[in-house]
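One record is kept unedited as follows:
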Amino acid sequence: MSYVDGFVLAVPKANLDDYKKLANTAGVVWKEHGALAYVECVGDDVPYGEITSFPRAVQAKDDEIVVFSWVVYESRKSRDAVLAKVMADPRLTPDWSTMPFDAKRMIFGGFQSFMEL
């Protein structure tokens, strides 16, 4: 069964093109280092819930759009090895002052698959 890293974040609409450039670079890097798949999605039907929702989870503001992303690996062991290489890759060395989103509001985590159809 595969292993998946998932991400949810809020990107200012004015920074969406910059975010897409960053995501494209990230996808290339992840795939080069062994990820099976890299997917980035822009919120299209993401309502603001009364109790909880994607926008609430990342404290999205009126001028921001929710992005949902995931990376697929062969296994947790593979993910750990790929992630170590990705984090050391100079193409993704972050300059936090110029990031096109607020990384403090990003949600992320690793998930073990239990079913794949």
Observations:
- Helices lie at 16-32, 54-57, 76-88.
